[in-house]
Amino acid sequence: MSKPVRTWAVVLAATILTGMEHTATASSDYNLGLLTDIMAKDPTQLCPYVTCQEPVSPETCPDGTTYLENASQFGCCGACVSFRQNGEFCTGNIDPLYGGGYTRGSSKLSDNVLDSLYNVSKNNILHSSWCDYSFQCLSRDNKIYVCTKLNITCRNMLDNYLRDVLSSDYKPYRDDYRWEPVCNRQGKFDAKQCMGPRDKRRCVCVDPEGNRIFGLAFPEQEELYSTMNCKCSRDVWEKRQAGQTAVTLHCEENGNYEELQCEDEMCYCVDPTTGDIYGSRLPEDAMHMLPCFNRTLAGEKYLRRCDSQLYAHAKLLDALAESGLRGPETLVTCDQDGSFSGKQCDQDTCRCWDKYFYQNLAVQSGEDCQCVEDLQFYKEINALITVTCKVNSGAYAEEQSQGSYKYCVDEDGIRSGPLVHVNKNDDYTLDCDNAKRCQKYGLSDTLDGCLNVCLTIKGDPCPDEAYPAFSPP
């Protein structure tokens, strides 16, 4: 297959370079050097000249593969990707919890140019050397790296944290970003988790496995932050896991219950702190007679603009299903407070919007919109906080800077790595993936995540002086 691909690469490189007023000359490497140079500088230049192969949609991917946008043909096309499985040789991870993935313009895409060229079969399946979801690429006998299944529960994570805090290898000035998870009696994650350094902790709602669900609060939101319990958000998650599509419970921004709730056209009052129902149940037309009714907050109708659209569509799908028919899927997505989710997609693209779907935040979103949503929040409260979002995305850039410091953040903008000095020579580099692994697996894991989050240009762990909080003896 190499010869046809090289011939195609020659033609493609020559066509592009000619259009860019460069001269394409034949060379012993079939002009792949020119093509690689374009890929390193701006791979999007290639896309107008690339015709994507089939299949190009998630529904057409065969079993055992995962559809990823911008994975194939120089990052211009979607592809079905086959990842390494348990026990197979590997060179990296694709787990989305660690920010892995093929994305246009990323270093991971550049590192896999040859994969795009040579490992795409006729049915557009890209064969990756990275581990599939839920596997980690770990060293075996310090010789080779293989995909390994690691099951980390809240209890495991808590044990790792408590063990490490008592260890001599734990350095508060370096490891202050690690947070103590809260687990229930079954060893699962409690609904509310507060993450990050103690003086900057942001609280979020999670499912029993620790995955993010609706609900978060900043320390600046004093009442929402101090009263947060995530009971509503977790209950909505459970109902949807049980197959309910038309869930009309309204949650506050922090995942707590709003006082007024309506289900199946019957309304009642709920204690936001406990989630307990009190008082009478009345038809929605009479909800104004309930003691918790607030016309300013509730308006004339319980359902808001977004969830009223979603609820009507869900009812339509249920009615069609009873007749053995399958209705069209809706593209609108709502948050559990009834407002529009930040990320909204049409047939061709996704963009970030405000919660009322009035203001387009002018950012195309390939991931989530948390970063631009937070920027809006900081603007509203007049906070002098600067964050960096990914290019062509509403998501947080993995590495952030603050004055003369730099640090890693997770998808919620929570600091997930040590604070490190930025010196004139920029001698220190951050491995944000290792920081996230450290949080889960601890100091003694085979990845040495905590020890190698900050590295010198020689690849050695950073000295103590790299960390602002370090106090010499």
Describe what you observe in this structure.
It is a single chain. The chain contains twelve helices and 20 strands. By secondary structure, it is α+β, with helices and mostly antiparallel strands. Among the domains are: 2-41, no CATH class; 58-149, Lipase, subunit A; 178-338, no CATH class. It is globular, with a radius of gyration of 25 Å.
Report strand %: 15-25%
CA(first)-CA(last) distance: 62 Å
Major sheet: arrangement of strands:
1-2-4-3
Number of E-state strands? 20
Question: Which regions have little confidence, pLDDT < 50, spanning 5+ residues?
Answer: 1-10, 20-26, 95-121
How many helices does DSSP assign? 12
Average pLDDT value?
77
State the secondary-structure class: alpha+beta
Rg for CA atoms = 25 Å
Estimated helix fraction: 10-25%
General form: globular
Biggest sheet architecture: 4 strands, mixed
What's this model, at a glance?
With 473 residues, the chain is of the alpha+beta class. The chain is 24% helix and 20% strand.
Task: Provide keyphrases for this structure.
single chain, 473 residues, alpha+beta, Lipase, subunit A, 4-stranded mixed beta sheet, 3-stranded antiparallel beta sheet, 12 helices, globular
Produce the secondary structure layout:
Blueprint: H1 2-19, H2 32-41, E1 66-72, E2 77-84, E3 92-93, H3 107-111, H4 113-118, E4 125-131, E5 135-140, E6 144-149, H5 154-165, H6 172-175, E7 192-195, E8 202-206, E9 212-217, H7 222-227, H8 231-241, E10 260-263, E11 266-270, E12 277-283, H9 295-298, H10 305-322, E13 343-345, E14 350-353, E15 360-364, H11 370-380, E16 399-402, E17 405-408, E18 420-421, E19 428-430, H12 432-441, E20 454-456
